[in-house]
């Protein structure tokens, strides 16, 4: 992979100009471009600019509708149910987390479900959105079928990412993980480099575990993290997302072979409203300090989720964001057409 170093503002401005050509209003193009660019700024290359060409392709196919925004379907106290109307997934998710934060400010806890939306790209963006508002955030999404049930030989489950963000004065804790051992975007990075995965990450067509990302991607047989536990976790997240939103479940998403029309849930807890502030910071600090005091094997270190993000963000701000040259060329050609 041949990388260029692109300044954050240049990356964001280029994506913004492309999105304008695809029917976004200026404000929505600005927000959408910022979410993509921030993903790579934070070092999550599997879900940022590398996915931008596919995002544009989904707009062309009519799966992602740039002009569509969520519409409310139901509101009962701290719970709201919205229809995403197949709008851009990252913008819909940002909106839903904003609503959950607002509800938490009113009730202490807010829950927003979202049907008929699209891939949110980097789910961690919305965990960071919550912690930057001083809130605890939890969100999850279903996906198309890309993982087998434990013991199964075909994709029946989604890898259904889960995000949990916990604010701290120094460094927030932000967990962003799929139910598969490796996210498909991560496997694609290894595939493009011509490299095997560091661990067996899925099954080949004969049902044997493999490190070959091409075989796993082709078969859509990612290995559930925690084996049968990850498969069970995936199933219940799909059920919750579909039931709470009234939207499609994983087995209904994959009707065309493309991934769109997803279901998502966003939860937010306001520590101030819930009277947690007196001891929350001290308790979080105790937990992290205990974790960091762990003995380690030679050459290893113990890190908590999200620990390296702010450091990566600082480095990429100073030196430029690594972007694949081929992807960057493809994006810039969109401005020439």
From TrEMBL:
UniProt GO molecular function: 3-dehydro-L-gulonate 2-dehydrogenase activity
Pfam families: Ldh_2
Key words of the record: Oxidoreductase
EC number(s) stated in the UniProt entry for this protein: 1.1.1.130
PANTHER family from the UniProt entry: 2,3-DIKETO-L-GULONATE REDUCTASE, OXIDOREDUCTASE-RELATED
The name this protein goes by in its record: 3-dehydro-L-gulonate 2-dehydrogenase
């Amino acid at each position: 992979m041949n990388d260029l170093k692109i300044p954050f503002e240049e990356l964001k401005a280029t994506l913004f100009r492309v999105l304008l050509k695809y029917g976004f209003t200026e404000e929505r193009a600005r927000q959408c471009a910022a979410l993509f660019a921030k993903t790579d700024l934070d070092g999550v290359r599997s879900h940022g600019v590398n996915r931008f060409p596919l995002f544009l392709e989904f707009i062309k196919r009519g799966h992602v509708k740039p002009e569509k925004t969520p519409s409310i379907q139901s509101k009962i106290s701290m719970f709201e149910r919205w229809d995403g109307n197949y709008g851009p997934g990252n913008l819909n998710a940002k909106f839903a987390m904003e609503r959950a934060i607002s509800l938490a400010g009113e009730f202490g806890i807010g829950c927003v479900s979202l049907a008929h939306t699209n891939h949110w790209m980097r789910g961690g963006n919305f965990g960071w959105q919550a912690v930057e508002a001083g809130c605890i955030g939890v969100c999850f999404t279903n996906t198309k079928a890309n993982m087998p049930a434990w013991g199964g030989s075909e994709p029946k489950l989604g890898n259904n990412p889960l995000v949990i963000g916990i604010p701290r004065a120094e460094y927030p804790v932000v967990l962003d993980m799929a139910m598969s051992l490796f996210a498909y975007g991560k496997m694609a990075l290894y595939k493009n480099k011509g490299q095997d995965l560091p661990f067996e990450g899925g099954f080949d067509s004969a049902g044997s575990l493999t490190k070959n990302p091409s075989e796993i991607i082709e078969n859509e047989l990612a290995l559930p993290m925690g084996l049968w536990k990850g498969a069970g976790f995936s199933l219940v997240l799909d059920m919750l997302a579909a039931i709470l939103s009234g939207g499609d479940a994983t087995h209904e998403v994959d009707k065309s072979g493309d991934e769109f029309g997803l279901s998502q849930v966003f939860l937010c807890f306001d520590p101030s409203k819930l009277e947690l502030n007196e001891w929350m910071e001290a308790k979080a600090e105790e937990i992290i300090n205990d974790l960091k005091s762990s003995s380690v094997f030679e050459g290893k270190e113990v890190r908590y989720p999200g620990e390296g993000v702010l450091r990566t963000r600082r480095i990429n701000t100073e030196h430029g964001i690594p972007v694949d040259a081929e992807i960057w060329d493809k994006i810039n050609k969109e401005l020439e057409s």
